[in-house]
Specification:
The protein is mainly alpha-helical. It has two domains: about 140 residues, no CATH class; about 70 residues. The protein is about 75% helix and about 0% strand. The protein is built from nine helices and no strands.
């Protein structure tokens, strides 16, 4: 049957992604409970930092803004972790914080400079390591695509595309990231987001080609 090998390979990749994510989530939660927020956040940044920085590159107006936001995000994750209730995955929670950070920054019309996290140097060191290994790629290979996304889509559409296509998040997790009302029904929100995603794909097909947006 046409498409069956590709579908099987995609399902296998998704299953492997889920296995790795679950193992990382378990490790982060164990560290939070036994070693404290700095150790847990350091491991989380090691595991998720590259993709979170990539998300910020897709949303920020400039590469410099993305890097600065990433430093602020790492600080926010560390400081907020003790109050995190684990009602979602750490990964989903991180993206929700990242999205809110971008929106707040541009609503205010300026970026604030982030001071070094002297109270948690291991977190700052891991954030710096992620930037070192990720930024060069983001500034080169992804430049054309990100410029196209910025010129074509608004912030929420970019978030939707990145989370579904690049991060392969479930619709319920995407709803958790994008719902501004904490009491909103995530299943209903997910259904609305699926429809919005289809509209976004249609808008991009002529610019990115038939394989530019899938999911």
């Amino acid at each position: 049957m046409t498409g069956a090998p590709e579908d099987s390979q995609r399902a296998a990749r998704l299953a492997e992604d889920e296995r790795r994510t679950k193992a990382l989530e378990d490790e982060i939660r164990t560290l939070a409970e036994t070693a404290g927020p700095a150790a847990a956040t350091t491991r989380a940044i090691e595991g998720y930092g590259g993709e979170l920085l990539g998300y910020l590159f897709a949303l920020a107006r400039t590469a410099d803004d993305a890097e600065e936001m990433f430093s602020e995000l790492c600080e926010k994750l560390w400081r907020a972790l003790p109050s995190f209730r684990w009602e979602s995955s750490f990964r989903t929670w991180s993206y929700a914080i990242a999205r809110n950070l971008v929106r707040e920054a541009y609503r205010q019309g300026h970026r604030r400079h982030v001071v070094a996290m002297s109270e948690a140097p291991e977190v700052a060191q891991q954030a710096a390591a992620v930037r070192t290994t990720t930024v060069a790629y983001m500034r080169s290979d992804m430049k054309r695509r990100l410029e196209l996304l910025r010129s074509t889509l608004d912030e929420d559409d970019r978030t939707l595309l990145v989370l579904r296509v690049d991060r392969r998040m479930s619709w319920r997790d995407i709803a958790r990231v994008m719902c501004d009302d904490p009491d909103e029904d995530h299943d209903k929100a997910a259904a609305k987001l699926r429809k919005r995603f289809e509209r976004v794909k249609e808008r991009l097909r002529s610019k990115l080609g038939p394989d530019g947006a899938s999911g």
